[in-house]
Amino acid sequence: MSLSEHLPILAILSLLLTAFIVPVVAKWKNELAGPVSVAALTLSLVLTVALAGRVFSEGAFYYSLGNWSAPWGIEFYVDALGVFMMLMLTIVGLLILVYAVKDLAHELKKGVDGWYYTLYLLLLAGMMGMSVTNDLFNMFVLIEIVAISSVAIISVKDNRHCVEASFKYLVLSAVSSGAFLLGVALIYMVTGHLNIDAVAAGLETALALYPRNILVAMALIAVGLGLKAALFPLHVWLPDAHSSAVSPSSAILSGLVIKIYAIVFIRVFLKVFPWEIYNNIPVMDLLLWMSTFGIIVGSLFAIVQTDIKRMLAYSSVVQIGYVFLGVALLAQTAMVGAVLHIFFHALMKAMLFLSAGVIIYSTGIRRISDLKGLGLKMPVVMTMFGIGALAMVGIPGTNGFISKLYLALGALEAGRPFFLFVIMASSLLNAVYYFPIVGNAFFGKREEPLPEIKPIPMAMLIPVVIMGLAIVVTGIYAAPVVGLASKAVAGLLSL
Fold first, then answer.
1. Is 106 within 8 Å of 11 (Cβ atoms)?
2. What Cα–Cα distance (Å) separates residue 191 from each residue in 185, 201, 221, 279, 281?
């Protein structure tokens, strides 16, 4: 078997192995811990690009770990959706990590950054595994790796707010993991399998014999994944966690972590459970209304925030609502919009959190009202923030417009025009809390002089600029990303 056959596991192992090496490197020479982590993630990106090339040229394939074939062994199913997610994780994750190398020295106590890189790489490795695993119990194990790493990269900043937020997240994450595991146990009880393909085949027969077991399993898994993805009203942990963490943690949590649970939700609910269930029980209708309330209520909460990172955190509740709205409409165009929004929002929100991190690093300002006049002193950062704000609203020329357009067309395709108006109304609400920030930064008049502005390290500025430019490029020339998302959705719906 050639090396190319092992690309799925090599892309993940490069991160896992480095995660255990980095603390030793940090102990020996602390300044090398960051570059070693960046090198490992760069290697993972190269392997993922090669893997994507194989999938899009030859089609999806199965990969068995340890030569134990399914349904008894652990299996990866590497399809267009999986590699789409892996590409997103490695590209955005690498940009955040480059930023973190300089920012962590400012935000963390001395000597802690080596452990941070370990947690960061473990988090990314867990999410990449979740993107392609075809085994429900292996999915649970990877979910736990991601959950523990997520909690840790919040609490690693040693202050009261971070510890409180991480403890709240830990408790709710444990509840959601328990719900997911119990749901998997019920599925195993009626099918005798954990492999997703075998479970999907078994549930077709088991539904007639054990309908209540399967419905309870569906409810438990929906609550478990919905809580981790911060789907309204299960979002209560998110504002504290994302706003109090160090800026790279906020960026990866909002940009990537909550999205991976949306991908798992899509896989499980569209691939595992029989479609007959959706004809008899309004599962997707319930998801539609939860998404709608999340979009509207999250926007209202964001409008009244005074802290910039907390406002961005509530904005994430809105954006995950768009993703689940696209899934619940059960129309191909809407699902393409949901997958597109997963990637585009990862760029938008990671860039916005990193921009906020640069502002805090240079000025110490967190209050939105104190940003007046900052655009003239920090034009590059505030311009990038403005691009992100335009994308969040969905202004043409940005990638946010493309994903919202597909969601809107999907609502019409599904015969649910009401949700088109929800998307339009939420865009107006987004403008209410994003546009004043940018307007005041460039045109607002301050009563007091700005604090002294520290020089911005290029390692922090370059990732922000790259993401900002990517938002515009993928908004003007979106065809390649739309093509990838369309293949991912078509492959999933063909099942």
1. no
2. 10, 9, 16, 22, 21
Sign of the torsion angle spanned by Cα atoms 395, 488, 199, 5? negative
d(C-alpha 169, C-alpha 165), whole Å: 6
| Residue of 494, 227, 475, 492 whose CA lies nearest to 340 | 475
Residues 6+ apart with CB under 8 A from 196: 77, 134, 135, 136, 267, 268, 271, 272
Strand ranges, E, within 37-144: 61-64, 75-78
Q: Which two tokens stand for residue 90?
A: 């490695």
Neighbours of 220 (CB within 10 A): 21
Which residue, among 358, 434, 377, has the nearest Cα to 102 in the 3D structure?
358
In one-letter notation, the amino acid at residue 428 is: L
Whether the Cβ atoms of residue 179 and residue 221 lie closer than 8 Å to each other = yes
CA 399 to mean position of chain CA atoms: 16
Asked if 222 and 312 count as a contact pair (C-beta separation under 8 A), the reply is no
> What ranges do the domains of the chain cover?
282-495
Angle among Cα 254, 301, 258 to the nearest 5 degrees reads 20
Nearest to 380 by CA among 399, 349, 358: 358
The answer to whether the beta carbons of residues 239 and 314 sit under 8 Å apart is yes
Q: What is the pLDDT along the chain (495 residues), one digit of tens a residue?
A: 566 678 888 888 889 898 888 888 878 787 787 788 889 999 999 999 988 888 888 887 888 877 777 677 788 888 888 888 899 899 999 999 998 888 877 776 777 777 888 888 999 999 999 988 888 888 999 999 998 888 888 887 777 777 788 888 888 888 888 999 999 998 888 888 888 888 888 877 877 777 888 888 888 998 888 888 888 887 777 777 777 778 888 888 888 888 889 888 888 888 888 777 877 778 788 888 888 888 888 888 888 888 888 888 888 888 888 888 888 888 888 888 888 888 888 888 889 988 888 888 888 777 887 778 777 888 888 888 889 889 888 888 888 888 898 998 988 888 888 888 888 888 888 888 888 888 887 877 767 776 677 788 888 888 989 998 999 998 888 888 888 888 888 877 664
Tell me the C-alpha to C-alpha distance, in Å, between residue 460 and each of 12, 307, 311, 329, 441.
26, 21, 22, 39, 20
First-residue to last-residue Cα distance in the chain: 28
| DSSP secondary structure letters along 362-381 | HH---BGGGGTTHHHHSHHH
